[in-house]
Write a structure and sequence with these properties.
Elements lengths: L3 H10 L4 E6 H12 L3 H4 L10 H11 L12 E4 L1 H20 L4 E4 L3 H17 L12 E6 L2 E10 L2 E5 L18 H12 L7 E5 L1 H8 L4 E5 L4 H8 L5 E4 L10 H10 L5
Pfam families: Phosphatase
Organism: Streptomyces kanasensis
Protein name: Phosphatase
Length: 271
């Protein structure tokens, strides 16, 4: 069994917490974009009140452990491993509660190259616990605005986890999927679930637009977020997202495996 102390050491050694690869310049830039209401930073969230850069920096210092000093403008950002651990415990509690009532669950990620195995193992465990892992709107087109203009993707599922692919590479055995922070995939998935005869998810598990988009629509959501992604933490502060776990979301995919084991053990779910 992975102890809390062992996981804390892993978080630091793997760069998931402590000094992380996320640059302070990028974090501050995204805080400015969020304060300006830029959809690249709000990720589908419509905040209840205005958030200026000062308030966002204060929030991120509280939730993540980044430096609250606005004069600290360059270098690596920092995530407090103890805040990560507390959030992982809360994350596991939400999974356990959903498993106990057999809730339908939707998993989705905008970082499939890094986070897909983490969510896939959770999806397997929730399915084994008797939860219906939903896959609505598979193959449906999603138009997303990117730096290169409007791009059309296909919504796909791998081991029960939603992601988007370029149409020419859609299908099993291809690349894990495209990187996106857009809330549009979860809106398409939830719209299809509403139109069909199947159930709506009672819990959405994911990151970026998946949790913010679901939380904005009033669905319980839990997920992961980096120090440069203020939207999920604002959503949590405003009661739209139930749990946001602070960690670096861009390290090697196998570095998240101990976190999966820890969460499943805490949630008393089969591994």
């Amino acid at each position: 069994m992975l102890t809390t102390a062992a996981l804390r050491a892993h978080l630091l050694a793997a760069g998931l917490a402590g000094p992380v690869a996320t640059l302070r310049e990028r974090s501050l830039r995204n805080y400015r974009l969020f304060a300006a209401g830029d959809p690249r930073a709000t990720l589908g969230l419509d905040p209840d009140r205005p958030w200026d850069e000062t308030a966002l920096l204060r929030l991120m210092a509280e939730k993540c452990g980044v430096s609250p000093d606005p004069r600290h403008r360059t270098g690596a950002d920092v995530i407090d491993p103890d805040r990560t651990l507390r959030a992982l415990d809360a994350f596991a509690e939400r999974l356990a509660a959903a498993a106990a009532r057999g809730a339908p669950v939707l998993f989705g990620t905008g970082h499939p190259h890094r986070l897909l195995p983490f969510y896939a193992m959770l999806a397997d465990a929730m399915s084994s616990a008797g939860c219906l892992v939903l896959t609505p709107a598979q193959g449906r087109c999603v138009d997303i605005t990117t730096r290169l203009g409007l791009r059309t993707y296909n919504l796909d599922y791998v081991r029960g986890v939603a992601l988007v692919r370029e149409p020419q590479v859609a299908g099993a055995g291809c690349e894990p999927g495209a990187h996106t922070h857009s809330p549009l995939p979860v809106r398409v998935a939830l719209g299809a679930a509403t139109e069909g005869d199947g159930p709506l998810p009672e819990l959405v598990v994911g990151d970026h637009g998946w949790v913010c988009g679901a939380g904005q629509l009033g669905i319980e959501a839990i997920g992961l977020a980096d120090a440069d992604d203020p939207a999920p933490f604002v959503a949590e502060a405003e009661g739209r997202v139930a749990v946001t776990v602070p960690l670096d979301d861009g390290v090697r995919s196998d570095y998240y495996r101990p976190l999966t084991r820890y969460v499943l053990n805490r949630a008393c779910l089969s591994q």
